[in-house]
Amino acid sequence: MYSNEYDVIVIGTGPGGEGAAMQAAKNGKKVAVVEKYHRIGGGCTHWGTIPSKALRFAIYSVMESMNNPILKELGTRGRSVSFGQLRAGSRSIIAKQESMRQTFYDRNAVPVLQGHAKFIDPNTIEVDGDVQIRGKFIVIASGSRPYRPEGVDFNHPRIFDSDTILDLQTNPQSITVYGAGVIGCEYASMFRNLGIKVNLVNTREKLLEFLDDEIIDALSYHMRDQGILLRHNETMSKIEGHADGVVLSLESGKQLKTDILLWANGRSGNTEGLNLESIGVSPNRRGQIVVNENFQTTCPNVYAVGDVIGFPSLASAAYMQGRAAATHFLGEATSMLSLQNVPAGIYTSPEISSIGKTERELTEAKIPYEVGHSQFKSLARAQITGRAIGMLKILFHRETLEILGVHCFGPNAAEIIHIGQAIMNQPGKNNTLEYFFNTTFNYPTMAEAYRVAALNGYNRLF
């Protein structure tokens, strides 16, 4: 006899789990959530998005204060602060996020069972080998963690991954970041903004190859200009931790010695211990679960969303995936959810945000497109704020003027991108370049970049 019967069981309280649980609960379903960590919110709240972005903001604020020309005149440059001091400021934000999310579950009468979930059969979950609960549908939203290869001693006090780096207390003089994906690039920017020497080792030919080439080039240029040493097409041979630093040996024969090393090369899905073999679900070698377009696993009543399914591994996408999974097993149409044109936000310095197709993709698909640019240095708002590095780029169809992609590099790029997203998702012929040059924008604003870029691109047609 089972202790509790539910319509839906969700494993994990990160964005994906929250999206699924709230969508089901709002539709009158009896929902239970299982969370192995002693606090809700998942990796996004406690080790990933929230703490890293709060840390980035703290670093940026300090550096901006130290470089403020008025403070320089007054002789009151900001004092030196440690990584640990900057990190401490994010704890109150994490607490607020956690408290807010707890109210969501409380208001919707969704119990959160603390413990490790394990499948007994397709409808039964055991929590910590004690309580068993049954559900008609089950959603796996267990998230991911940094990939840790064999042979790397992550117990060494100078070797970190993207979770443990948040526990760093003092500022090193130098750091090697191995892995130049989103996490590696973001942390490389943060450490360099603290005046720390940075080696960024990339296992690929270019940084962030999924981005538009012009954005990649801009990021590479600004990283080098800031003093980050980029090393492309390199592969680790071994990592040795010593009392006075860490030596990274590369297959090319190079050796890099720095005070600390941050491993930022890949992530693994949190699927071990779930006993997925009992329901016929087999994760790949990185622990990720394969799903169909409705986020169903090979066991039809079991769904998976968020980082545990891999790309795009974005908190925003995970939340929508959770909602989409719930709408599917509730028998509702998922067409109301915009699961296409998901923007990417990368919090390097400056920021990057992108949505839609790149020039490379459009060229390969033989789609006739044109480009519109707006350089931030030409915008009055950017000149006023002294944040003139960056640009907005619009890709559009030469014949129909349909917006095909928007790419932004510069301050507040992750906010600016949503104007382009809103227009791209409009139905019919409302998603064209004409919207931008036929609309009045506040002046001076950064949003005005869309009008400038649209006119720039439109003029190329004649």
Can you summarize this structure?
This protein has helices at residues 15-26, 42-46, 49-66, 69-74, 83-88, 90-107, 182-193, 213-226, 315-329, 359-364, 380-385, 413-424, 434-437, 449-459; strands at 4-11, 31-35, 112-114, 117-121, 124-127, 131-140, 144-146, 159-161, 174-178, 197-201, 229-231, 236-242, 245-250, 255-258, 260-263, 267-269, 302-304, 344-346, 352-356, 369-375, 391-397, 403-409.
Could you explain the architecture of this structure?
With 462 residues, the protein is α/β, with parallel strands linked by helices. The chain folds into three domains: 4-146 and 268-329, 3-Layer(bba) Sandwich (FAD/NAD(P)-binding domain); 159-265, FAD/NAD(P)-binding domain, CATH 3.50.50.60; 350-459, Enolase-like, domain 1, CATH 3.30.390. Helices cover 31% and strands 24% of the residues. It has 14 helices and 22 strands. It has helices at residues 15-26, 42-46, 49-66, 69-74, 83-88, 90-107, 182-193, 213-226, 315-329, 359-364, 380-385, 413-424, 434-437, 449-459, and strands at 4-11, 31-35, 112-114, 117-121, 124-127, 131-140, 144-146, 159-161, 174-178, 197-201, 229-231, 236-242, 245-250, 255-258, 260-263, 267-269, 302-304, 344-346, 352-356, 369-375, 391-397, 403-409. The strands form five sheets. Strands 1, 2, 3, 4, 5, 6 and 17 form a seven-stranded mixed sheet that branches. The protein has a five-stranded parallel sheet with strand order 8-15-9-10-11. Helix 1 links the parallel strand 1 (4-11) and strand 2. Helix 1 runs parallel beside helix 9 (315-329) and helix 3 (49-66) packs antiparallel against helix 6 (90-107). The N and C termini lie far apart (75 Å). The mean pLDDT is 92.
